[in-house]
Amino acid sequence: MKIFKTSRFAVQIIMLLFAVSITSCVVHTGTTKTVKTKQVPPGQAKKMNGDKSAKNYAPGQNK
Question: pTM here?
Answer without folding.
Answer: 0.36
